[in-house]
Design a protein that fits this description.
The complex is a heterodimer.
Chain A lengths: L1 H19 L9 H19 L13 H27 L6 H19 L3 H19 L5 H34 L8 H7 L5 H19 L7 H8 L2 H28 L3 H23 L5 H22 L2 H31 L10 H4 L1 H14 L6 H15 L3 H26 L16 H19 L3 H14 L4
Helix pairs in contact in A: 1-2, 1-4, 2-3, 3-4, 3-10, 3-13, 3-18, 3-19, 4-5, 4-10, 5-6, 5-10, 6-8, 6-9, 7-10, 8-10, 8-11, 9-12, 10-11, 10-12, 10-13, 11-12, 11-17, 12-13, 12-16, 12-17, 13-15, 13-16, 13-18, 13-19, 15-17, 15-18, 16-17, 16-18
Chain B lengths: L1 H20 L3 H22 L5 H27 L13 H21 L10 H21 L3 H20 L7 H29 L13
Helix pairs in contact in B: 1-2, 1-4, 1-5, 2-3, 2-6, 3-7, 4-5, 5-6, 6-7
Classes of the chains: A mainly alpha, B mainly alpha.
């Protein structure tokens, strides 16, 4: 209980302090401080297996433990980058930005801890709202358009998720007795729920939380938002927020499988997953805009997550593992892409070439990140994508396995052309003479994340593996 | 009580149709505010009595949907150079027709769905009104081009979901209901600020102008 409140309130209080902080120059230094405290609380919560709060409103379930660790670690590493980034962008006031970053962290933590269907929804909506000012940091027409689309699409999506939550609650009401919207009660009572309401609830919740994840065809806000957001915001949204939305989806899926509706819910997720990969493969090919390319890569990986979850069985293990790997590597990609963007004052492939010469560290990180994110060994995503593929083949679903493999290959080639064009060759003489160059603060965080991804691929720590196993067994109903 | 509840729900349905045909933004805001006021009476009417929970949810609804949010929108409107929604993507008459179809479809749908009895209350009517209001919100959201009208459409959509949520008032803790309303308030607040920036940046609040970002 104390750990839960500390974990949620530390960033919220941090945000209030940031609002009161007077000096523009020193305010960003507060970010890593709060992040470090948050990470310390997170680690003690993950290790301690704390008791649920009174009334079980706040509770850390095994999948939540995994997401919490990912979110907190990613934020801690990225916050160091934030110090350097905001020093570069001293011309922009950063009061709101710093406060919203921490509020965003607090609300993501809240999603993880919330064990009540409605409470989790409230926290998810709060992340949408705190992300708005983060997207609008650059205060120009393009970021304004992206923010508006994000707010409208995100709010409508999340409104449908609210309706889905109500439907799920109504399915429980119809079952009679004293209905409760706590997740473990929902799972326990699920077999008696009214089937039509349960199925309608699942469809709405998939649309709603799928919008937050960015599953196609609800992904339309994503390229715009990630394309215009600062790299640090892109890293947190693509790595951490989408993982929280996936957590929400997996909790709902858990209820459905407990109700014996796995055969209804699974195929929906598999089809949406494949469709997301297909959309991503179409739009990554010949993509001119680096950051939009990363957004479509995120759509692809959300598709892989939904696909793995929908397969069930060992696919769920692969999906949770892939959630970690995707979160880590998205940090590398967005941070290094942000550096390249600044070094050339452009994110379009026609202006950017020879990044390995102009910003050697960032260029190399971007290249290595590309290989990792497309599932090349020896990085983490290779292992998790392989285990999802394996799950499909174990179930003798050769068609979907082949489709996944084929789409991954197309994305690899599509991104490859763009990425190689960016890092290789000479910088065009006409390209902007930005004075931005590699430094410790803007490359070390991405390097740390890349090392983590490497570690996950070569020698995954046993502790992490058993946590993923526990999460998969919990959602898969084997416990 | 059940009869009064049903009468209030019919009022909500009429307000929906009015919204689909109205073009003056100020009028639309006032009708949405009136809908908020009407909705605030439903917790007590549908659950037959004034428990603590009904009073709190009703009062918060009245305060936010009936007073605070409409005032915010009126203020946002005062800063904008527009008064009317002109040239919607789908005409007002067509919208009204679609609204009528949506309403009758919702009523039909509510009669075939399996519903749990609501203490003698008009549960079919609640579900029908909820669906019709959501569809009205969607229509406003998708056929209007002014950013402010889209926000109003989002509000009406939320109203529809709110009506459905009333079926669960005894189940969901009121903390959650209040949390939902609070999120809605902040959402409208943030959207209001963004509209203001859109107006300054593009000297227009037509969302059709927001079409730079594409593949």
């Amino acid at each position: 209980m104390v750990l839960a409140l500390l974990n949620i309130l530390v960033p919220v209080i941090g945000a209030l302090v940031a609002l009161a902080w007077r000096s523009e120059r020193s305010r960003p230094l507060w970010l890593p401080v709060v992040a470090a405290v948050h990470l310390a609380v997170t680690i003690s919560a993950v290790v301690a297996h704390p008791q649920p709060s009174a009334g079980r409103w706040l509770m850390l379930d095994p999948p939540g433990r995994l997401v919490l660790l990912l979110v907190s670690t990613l934020f801690a590493v990225v916050s160091v980058y934030g110090v350097g980034y905001l020093r570069e962008r001293f011309e922009r006031p950063n009061r709101i930005f710093c406060a919203c970053l921490m509020l965003f962290l607090g609300m993501m933590t809240f999603i993880v801890w919330a064990h009540h269907l409605g409470l989790m929804w409230v926290a998810l909506e709060a992340t949408t709202l705190s992300a708005g000012p983060l997207l609008y940091f650059n205060r120009n027409a393009r970021s304004l358009e992206a923010t508006w689309k994000y707010l409208m699409v995100g709010s409508v999506g999340i409104a449908l998720a609210l309706l889905g939550s109500f439907f799920l609650g109504y399915a429980a009401v119809q079952a009679g007795g004293e209905p409760s919207l706590l997740f473990d009660d929902l799972v326990r009572n699920a077999p008696g729920f009214s089937k039509p309401w349960l199925q309608a609830a699942f469809v709405l919740l998939v649309v709603g939380y799928g919008t937050k994840m960015g599953l196609a065809p609800m992904h339309t806000w994503k390229p715009d938002a990630y394309g215009e957001a600062p790299g640090i915001v892109g890293a947190l949204m693509a790595g951490a927020l989408t993982s929280c939305a996936f957590l929400a989806l997996s909790r709902v899926f858990h209820v459905l499988t407990a109700a014996g509706e796995g055969a209804f819910a699974g195929p929906i997720l598999v089809v949406l997953g494949l469709f997301s990969m297909a959309v991503a493969s179409v739009f990554t090919v010949r993509q001119r805009d680096l950051k939009r390319m990363l957004a479509y890569s995120s759509v692809e990986h959300m598709g892989i997550l939904a696909f793995g979850l929908g397969l069930g069985g060992s696919g769920i293990f692969g999906a949770f593992l892939h959630m970690l790997n995707n979160g880590i590597i998205k940090g590398v990609m967005f941070l290094s892409a942000g550096n390249i963007h600044r070094a050339y004052d452009s994110k379009y492939v026609e202006d950017v070439s020879g990044a390995l010469r102009r910003v050697p560290w960032s260029g190399a990180l971007f290249l290595a990140g590309f290989f990792a994110v497309t599932g090349s060994p020896p990085f983490g995503p290779f292992v998790s994508e392989l285990s999802i593929l394996n799950a499909a083949m174990e179930q003798h679903r050769w068609g979907v396995a082949a489709a996944m493999l084929g789409l991954l290959l197309v994305v690899f080639m599509g991104m490859g052309v763009t990425v190689l064009g960016v890092v290789q060759g000479e910088a065009a003489p006409s390209s902007s003479q930005s004075r931005f160059r590699d430094g410790v603060l803007n490359t070390l965080p991405a390097l740390v994340l890349l090392a983590m991804s490497f570690g996950m691929g070569v020698a995954m720590p046993d502790a992490i593996q058993s946590m993923v196993r526990e999460a998969a067994d919990y959602v898969g109903g084997r416990r | 009580m059940a009869a009064a509840g049903a009468a209030v729900l019919v009022l909500v349905l009429l307000q929906n149709l009015f919204l689909l045909g109205a073009s003056r933004l100020r009028t639309i805001i006032y009708v949405v505010a009136a809908q908020g006021v009407v909705l605030s009476t439903l917790p007590a009417l549908l659950h037959g009595g004034l428990g603590g929970q009904e009073i709190v949810v009703g009062a918060v609804t009245l305060f936010l949907k009936g007073v605070v949010i409409p005032r915010m929108l009126i203020r946002a409107l005062a800063d904008l150079p527009i008064r009317r929604e002109v040239e919607p993507l789908v005409g007002f008459k067509t919208c009204l027709g679609l609204g009528a179809i949506a309403t009758s479809g919702s009523i039909y749908l509510a009669t075939i769905l399996p519903l749990a009895p609501l203490g003698g209350g008009p549960e079919h009517m609640v579900v029908a009104t909820s669906f019709a209001t959501m569809l009205t919100g969607f229509l406003l959201l998708t056929t209007r081009v002014k950013a402010l009208t889209q926000v109003l459409g989002y509000l009406v959509l939320e109203n529809g979901i709110y009506i459905f949520g009333l079926l669960l008032l005894k189940t969901t803790t009121f903390l959650v209901e209040v949390g939902v309303l609070l999120d809605l308030f902040v959402a409208i607040f943030v959207m209001g600020i963004i509209i203001n920036h859109i107006s300054r940046e593009f000297t227009s609040v037509n969302t059709e102008r927001l079409a730079t970002l594409k593949d």
